[in-house]
Amino acid sequence: MIPALVTLAGSPWAVLPTGLHPASLREIEARFAINVSRRAQFEGLIAALRSLRAAGCVRAFLDGSFVSAKPAPGDFDACWDPAGVDLAQLDPVLLTFDNQRAAQKAKFKGEFFPSSVPADQVGTTFIEFFQVDRFTGAPKGLLLIDLTVDSML
User: Fold this and answer.
1) At what angle do helices 36-54 and 25-32 cross, to 10 degrees?
2) What are the boundaries of each domain within the chain?
3) How many helices (H) and strands (E) does the chain have?
4) Model-wide pTM > 0.90
């Protein structure tokens, strides 16, 4: 179950509470794919997760304003566990990071990163980086999607 969003002083919209919150794609759809632009982003998420699953990925983490109270997020952010993933089987767009991930945004309406890769100059991994609110520096949560059992994939 996706928990209620929490307000962080200084953040423009409510976010997920601290922690990794298991969620099915049906739960994510019901909670966050609530308008035309969010629906398009959700469809892109599904397409990318199908590619990740086909390449052997077992879990992904969803972040960004898509999983917040922001009325019209521009995209979503996600990272995926690279353990056991056959990169040769993965859609190459998911490994294209140039031009501010323009190819990923065009194809999937969001951005994807391997969870264990550094997100900044000090070596913070994406799984850690995504658990910090960018406006306040306060901890926040992520949605954890188990790709091995989700019925929408």
Assistant:
1) 160
2) 19-146
3) 4, 5
4) yes
